[in-house]
Amino acid sequence: MTLAPTAHDTATTAVTNSPPRRDPLRLTEAELAELAADFDAVRDEVFSRRGQSDAQYIRRVVVLQRSLEMTGRACLLFSRHTPLWWAGVGCLSVGKILNNMEIGHNVLHGQWDWMNDKEIHSTTWEWDFVAPSAGWQRTHNETHHTWTNVLGKDRDVGYNVLRMDPDQPWKPVNLLNPVINLGLAPAFEWGIAIYDIELDQFLTGKKSGRATFEDFKRVMKKLGRQSAKDFVVSPLLASLTGSGKASLKGFLAANVIRNVWAHTVIFCGHFPDGAETFTEEDVRDETRGHWYRRQAMGSANIDGSRLMHFMSGHLSFQIEHHLFPDMPSNHLARIAPRVREICRKYGIRYTSGPLPRQVFQAWRKVCRLALP
């Protein structure tokens, strides 16, 4: 099992002396090899074209994000004036969303490592999020993207607090599915930070106490920095203009807005109707073709405008992102028609829909699976 297509080059292929076999997802080895070649061609074309225009794109996004954040923080220094409060919350919310989605998530996937820019590199980037980058990369890049939607392996299927698949055993606590999810949305960064400590792994003996404690310390250190920046230092400075309480409320509002949006995008990419789950047997001896097919079948896209795609970090193209997690995000919209056509060619359902429908379906699943 591997992290992504780039690490899948040595994956097991069909033994030529063996008769063709049907995999659990109904494609022969020959068809899966063709599928892999088709997707590899898409990836190779994009990676061969990476260059100055891509570097300019991400650097402009970074400048935009920092400008919005600085403007928002400046406005909140004088936020006792209502128009400045709204301007501050708006700019800061968008700045935080861009920091997490179009920059942070994608930088931490290594999408821009080829630039060799220490300012925009997966090994040095730390985002405006309570969850430390290193812990998130382990649980997201290494676990989720390797075992996408494999029950018992992909801990993102419910984040250990929600029942999100009918094959997950029902427990009485699952009756609280809607309540838990409603609380998770505005506190999403806190939930992810706790999740990344992997307490469940520690309790089952899969993770040492030392490693768990080190992750806990890392989270607490990051929590201290984030809280000091948004809820102590900035409001104290704003209090000099008589805007301390208004500033505190503004920072809280901006963080909640960012968290709700991130939660919405993530849930719409993984839990609407059509996003499938798999068993460990399904991925036994998985080849490159199997891996590609599972990524496409286990993800869902969101239809929308260019602005919506930008604000989602292009995770509205979740299918394309899961197929090519280290592909620069600004290419995903362009390759989407080709990916859709390849899926149609091999009978793979390409799940996509408008934001309201995807949100409704994800929440309907949350509520339905609260029951036995």
In short:
The protein is mainly alpha-helical and 372 residues long.
Tell me about this structure.
- This protein has 372 residues and is an all-alpha fold.
- It has one domain (5-9, 21-368).
- 58% of the residues lie in helices and 2% in strands.
- The protein is built from 14 helices and two strands; from the N terminus they run ααααααααααβαααβα.
- A two-stranded parallel sheet has the order 1-2.
- Helix 1 (29-49) packs antiparallel against helix 13 (332-345), helix 2 packs antiparallel against helix 3 and helix 3 (82-108) runs parallel beside helix 9 (244-270).
- The radius of gyration is 21 Å and the shape is globular.
- It starts with 28 loop residues before the first helix and ends with a helix.
- Residues 1-23 are annotated as: Disordered.
Which tags fit this structure?
372 residues, mainly alpha, 14 helices, 2% strand, disordered N terminus, Fatty_acid_desaturase, FA_desaturase_dom, oxidoreductase activity, acting on paired donors, with oxidation of a pair of donors resulting in the reduction of molecular oxygen to two molecules of water, Linoleoyl-CoA desaturase
State Rg: 21 Å
Largest sheet: 2 strands, parallel
Series of H and E elements: HHHHHHHHHHEHHHEH
- Spatial shape: globular
Low-pLDDT segments: 1-24
**Alpha-beta content class:** mainly alpha
Q: Please tell me the overall pLDDT.
A: 92
Question: How do the strands and helices of this protein lay out in sequence?
Answer:
Blueprint: H1 29-49, H2 52-76, H3 82-108, H4 133-144, H5 177-184, H6 188-197, H7 199-203, H8 209-239, H9 244-270, H10 288-297, E1 301-303, H11 306-311, H12 318-323, H13 332-345, E2 352-354, H14 355-368
Parallel strand pairs: 1-2
Helix pairs in contact: 1-10, 1-13, 2-3, 3-9, 4-6, 6-8, 8-9, 9-14
